[in-house]
Amino acid sequence: xxTAIFHNNCMYIAHQLLILPFDxxxxxxxxxITFIDYVLVFRDTAYNQISQQMEKQRGILNEYxxxxxxxxxxxxxxxxxxxxxxxxxxxxxxxxxxxxxxSLKDIWIEILPPSVCxxxxxxxxxxxxxxxINQMLNMEDIPSHIATSLFKxxxxxxxxxxQLMSQFLLPFDQVIxxxxxxxxxxxxxxxxxxxxxxxxxxx
Length: 203
Description:
Elements: H1 2-23, H2 36-64, H3 69-78, H4 88-108, H5 114-137, H6 144-164, H7 172-175, H8 179-191
Helix pairs in contact: 1-2, 2-5, 4-5, 4-6, 5-8, 6-8
């Protein structure tokens, strides 16, 4: 919350510095007075604060969905009797991540301009999707019954994403660079995991 407010304050001051000469008629005098140097300072300060906050949020998502999560879920079940409950850690991590992003959006949308808020949420969502794709691509083989369960999980996650992004005016693939890869992954899980290596160049 504090970072979002600080960002808004900096951008507001930067904007006011741009129009200040016109408000006080400085621009109509022989002496040209501008504050452009300060405008850049405030804009850079706003950007740096948001960048630091985004790194913090990526770290939180990484804790929910750590690098070994998907691999561990699958490895534990390759040599054991598999059930849908076996992938509970993955489902839990995705749910925690989506809940976190929803909470962030609910807070930021009240403070930041909608376009800025949506862009930040889309960036974090893209980070989460990228980690999920990379971990699944690192698997050499996934049995068809596990692939089917993974498809169901990703399909349910897609519904959560649709709800999170309901206010976005642009197509998802324009704001989430890895969206098409995510959709391709779901198709491959439906068809069969062995085919993923034929399509790996698309990821």
